[in-house]
Records
---
Amino acid sequence: MTKREAIIQATIEVVGKNGIADSPTIQIAKSAGAAEFTIFRLFGNKNDLLHETFNVVIARFQAVCWPVIDKINNIEEKLRASLFTGSKYYRKKPEELAYIQQYIFSPLGVRKRPDLRYEKGEDVSSFPLIFILAEGKKQGVFKNLSMTGLTALCVAPMIIFMREEQIRNIKHSKRELELFVDACLHGVLV
């Protein structure tokens, strides 16, 4: 693992656990086994480090999700598959889910939220869930709501469901997960 990779991994873990405000670069550097100066040399500043870490976390999920949903033609089934894929992925990588949550709800990360970027007309086609929701909305399969509304109905509950498992140290049964995914899906269907 390179120093850059070690710092990004430490950022995921420290910020996911403590939040952005309570994660000084000195703590991230110590966790990565690096000097604080190395963070500034490699990333410029803490904000750039946080943005780069978000990009890495999202790219990791995209690499797992796209191959699954690309094989599916039906938009409803694409959404179901992406929610299942996300739940399996984030069960294995709970620190990444915690990081995403800390980041996208921070003043720094809110500008990078794909739902808000979509509403501004930016290209967010690389984000599987946003792509699927936009396509389903265009096809008339999903409700004609803002992207923020659609994600609030199906993505946000999924994040909360997965974080509940992590925080309470439980694992819902496959059937409970199926029921929950179906409920999220039905929340956006016309």
---
Amino acid sequence: MATLIQVLLKLSIVLVEFCLGLKSDPHDAIYLFQRPGQLLRSLLSMYIVMPSFALLLAIVFDLRPALEIALIALAVSPIPPLVPKNVLKAGGEHPYALGLLVAAALFAVVFIPSVLELLGGAFGLRIGMSVSAIALLVLTTALLPIGAGIGARYIAPGLADRIVGPLSSIGMLLLVASIVSILFTAWPDILSVIGSGTIIAIIAFVAIGIASGELLGGPGGRDGAVLALSTASRHPGIAIAITRVNFPGLKNVSAAVLTYVIVSALAMIPYIVWSRRRVRVAVSRPL
């Protein structure tokens, strides 16, 4: 049963990312590489601010070991596989959303193993993740599905427009079914990690991500919304893989990651609503 749920979850992510590619063109994928200043600010928010804050939380506060490890693993996993949908709901621009996802995925292949090695040296631990393992996760959950979608649209744009809606609906249905199944099977473990400041720590983590994205995303709101949600969202699959490889004996770390996914999704709703309203107000203002 657990294997089937994992397969359905991965399939749903692949379908959602493929549909994102079906709505894009090659120029969207290289959007940020044509804007080095914006690329640098985006990477600073996603790759430096969040790991630094996660370390601060771990050092200053007496968090449960499972949550502490989970937040650090999430902080070094800056490839949110589903965030573009939320970004577009918040009024973000599609080219920047897709370009940021592609750039984050490419940089993650080098970033994640390097940062894990630095963390291991700082804490006197033997932790790490091979470049090949990260590259495989990044390719299968982000780059290949998006690239296939972009390629399909380039070859047959009419067909892409017709199938993107049904495929997107199937992907989201599979995703919801997978999440409900995971919650049903893992609910006792999730309850076991709640308490001792768990919810507060996760909300603080999300709030810092949103604030960092707003600050470094630039004026105007739309790019800020993209970077805010992308910074606050992390890749739970990569985070769980990191913890399983490096801390196989530590209980409930996966449950702590799942708790983050649930709490962070709920915590982002007010920001998404506010950001959409901000964009509508800006558009309605007379020039």
---
Amino acid sequence: MWRILALAIALPCGLATAAPPPTSNDQSTPAEVTVEAQRKAIEHQAYDFVREATRNPRFENESLPRWNAPVCFAVAGLPTEQGLFALGRLSEIARAAGVRVAPRGCKYNFYVVFAPQPGNLLKKAFLGASKALDRCEGLPMVREFLSPTKPRAVRVWHNVRPFTRDGMPIDVSGRCMGALADSTDFPVSLQYWPSHLQRYDVTAFSLALVIIDTAYPKPVKLGQLVDFAALVGLADISVDANVGDTPSILRIFDQAADEQAPGLTQWDSAFLNSLYQSDQAAVVQRSQMALKISHNIAVERPHEKDAGGR
């Protein structure tokens, strides 16, 4: 440094010297710019993923439903050993997402049924008990579940009930979270919260019914089916959701066997975690989830591991 100063002093006064390069506040290195671009790309992908996965019009302007009560799993249609595997895996995924799992002897509220002809099974099961399914969206929704207009590998049904923003169940006179008048169900909320950023009340699952067609012409392994059932049963996700090129178990029925995820991916696990860690009463719940997902993916991406792969 002293040599440079001495040289500068010794220069003739009339000698022209090169002007110093312009200073810039942006000191980012190419590597930092690349990382920032990747982070932004992940954020956009997370917002798209959440928007597409939660596009059910039933809850478009409501809180995203989730399990506020303990979940009690039941698996039917499998040999004993496979059934025990499925129960264990479902409980594992639920606990990892922050869902409470009820102890043995509980009252079942989350059913996963494997059947080669689920349509016939459902028609017999609900022939005299169709009221077990919410009719809030009308009978066409019930009919579509019982007899879909196109073949489906997986069908999902949820019943929901209202809760206060603090997590307390709300007693309602109608089946659809409303009041009955002249045999018509009118939505009524007696909750009040003086904020445009918080909802008065929220919705939570009281029943999940996941039906898997074992005769569906697509090579899918049991572990993949169980993980798929866990995802669509723990969250209200359309089985027709188009998540683009985002790695997700939701894509297995549109992919070749060598392209399918072996189980829940980082994105799927991050989605469930974000749902159960978000503020359910917040109007910006979806944005909270997307930010949480993008953070988790950005942290875990260097490892490139699947959360539930086998």
---
Amino acid sequence: MVVQEGYKQRQKAIEQLEERGLTADEASEEARSYFYFICQLTNQFITMSHNGQDPTPMQWIFKSRLYGFKIRYTTTAEGCIQWIGDNVLYQQIQFSMS
């Protein structure tokens, strides 16, 4: 999505330069590069927030993911080993203590 938006922004910049009287080739040369627009958007939407800036969508995704990992790795799960007398059952495998 960031690359697509960067593409659209550059095309819009080229159109604005053409409206000012430049030819298509001149406008293409004069407009900022795709790299410039994509870097701006990357810094705005994909990086983590620092220095008191507002959080980005990626910040929310990473925080949600970390919260899910915390729950997953600190919450005990239901046991999957069963004992029937001296036999141990684990999934589809059965062992006897003898």
